[in-house]
Automatic annotation (TrEMBL):
Keyword annotations from UniProtKB, A to Z: Methyltransferase, Transferase, Ubiquinone
Keyword Metal-binding: no
Record GO biological process: methylation
Keyword Methyltransferase part of the UniProt annotation: yes
EC number: 2.1.1.-
A Pfam family of this chain: Methyltransf_25
Protein name listed in UniProt: Ubiquinone/menaquinone biosynthesis methyltransferase
GO terms for MF: methyltransferase activity
Organism encoding this protein: Sorangium cellulosum (strain So ce56)
Top enzyme class: transferase
Signal peptide extent: none
Length: 267
């Protein structure tokens, strides 16, 4: 099993994510809308990054509600703290350890593009912890990478790496299938409302924009197993391959995410 490192993040990557995370922010807003987050609720954002979505949710719940945003990367939490307000608190924390929070203390817990960075035991613990801190009838929502329908970039990148005699492993995400998501929720005692794959279309100016996003959103893990020389060669070959996806709006690529909404049993 490959390991995702939390030690590769840098101030530059954190700032790049803050200014280039529109994709995660936009599908995160869709997740929040689907969850039906409303005024007065107490919400936990797990893996909040630099806090863009948490700040959006704080506006929704209003002064009667509250949002707590946690992330394991201190550099990103530092940026999130700049968005703090009376109803938005931020802290360093991990999805698989919510011991700082009392049982049955939140109305909603969500993880936006987070779960695929956790290995299998961490996933189990994270979803179990979400169930513990949710009130009866509370709602869980998450978006995560789909293994049965990968991003359009992934097979292209695997091809390029294979040509160089390198595998595509590195510190890559641990993606799930729809059936695995349903089983994960069931083991934690959740009742699944929706588990589906949604497709999003992105446009990038060039390969460098794609690589910047991949590096910042993976907190330095993307292609981290390659040498600088290998990375330059991968960049050149990817640029050549991706020209086939060039449109007037830029390089058009599709990505696929599993959206899952579930709830705990009521009283």
């Amino acid at each position: 099993m490959t390991t995702i490192s939390l030690s590769l993040d840098t101030p530059e990557l954190a700032q790049a994510y803050e200014h280039g995370s529109d994709r995660q922010f936009n599908h995160g807003k869709l997740l929040i809308e689907t969850l039906g987050v409303r005024r007065g609720q107490r919400v936990l954002d797990v893996g909040a990054g630099t806090g863009r979505l948490a700040a959006h949710v704080a506006e929704i719940v209003g002064p009667e509600g509250s949002v707590t945003a946690i992330d394991p990367l201190p550099l990103r939490v530092d940026i999130a703290r700049q968005k703090a307000r009376a109803n938005l608190a931020t802290a360093v924390g991990r999805a698989e350890d919510l011991s700082a929070f009392a049982s049955k203390s939140f109305d909603v817990v969500y993880l936006n593009s987070v779960l695929h960075w956790l290995n299998e035991p961490q996933k189990e613990r994270a979803i179990a912890e979400a169930a513990r801190v949710l009130k009866p009838g509370g709602k869980l929502g998450f978006s995560t990478g789909s293994r049965e329908k990968p991003h359009q970039l992934e097979p292209i990148q695997r091809k390029v790496l294979a040509e160089l005699g390198r595998d595509a492993e590195g510190n890559r995400p641990h993606k799930l299938t729809v059936d695995e998501v349903r089983a994960l929720l069931e083991r934690a005692g959740f009742i699944a409302d929706t588990v589906e794959i949604l497709t999003f279309v992105d446009h990038a100016a060039d390969v460098d924009e794609i690589l910047r996003h991949s590096g910042s959103s993976s907190f330095g893990n993307h292609l981290s197993h390659l040498s600088p020389e290998e990375k330059r060669e991968v960049r050149a070959r990817l640029a050549n391959e991706l020209e086939a996806f060039r449109t007037p709006k830029g390089l058009r690529l599709e990505r696929n995410l599993i959206f899952a909404i579930a709830h705990t049993a009521g009283n």
